[in-house]
């Protein structure tokens, strides 16, 4: 994997990709065809990246990591939406809006 982080959480994700040895990243300001080609060759020619990715794949499958992450996101989003609905309802009630 070769990541090219642009914004939001991408720089953090790219750093984790490199830290955990499943790929490399290049900052957008350092990106050119030569650098990208170099990183692609590095990642595809070194089996360590593939081995690390397969290890993570196995761990995620054993721990149901993706399902757990999705459950947490759904729970937090549901709580947020319920809180927002409650606040909206309170505003309507406080202003006697039918």
Largest sheet: 2 strands, parallel
CATH-defined fold name of the largest domain: Rossmann fold
Shape: elongated
CATH architecture label of the largest domain: 3-Layer(aba) Sandwich
Which series of helices and strands comes N to C? EHEHHH
Class by alpha and beta content: mainly alpha
Strand content: under 5%
Helix content: over 70%
Into how many domains do the coordinates divide?
A: 2
Give a quick set of tags describing it.
2 strands; 2 domains; 4 helices; elongated; two-stranded parallel sheet; 98 residues; mainly alpha; Rossmann fold
Task: Walk me through what this model shows.
With 98 residues, the chain is mainly α. The protein folds into two domains: 1-62, Rossmann fold, CATH 3.40.50; 64-98. The chain is built from four helices and two strands. The model has no long low-confidence stretch (mean pLDDT 90).
Helix and strand topology:
Layout: E1 2-3, H1 10-19, E2 24-25, H2 33-45, H3 47-63, H4 65-94
Parallel strand pairs: 1-2
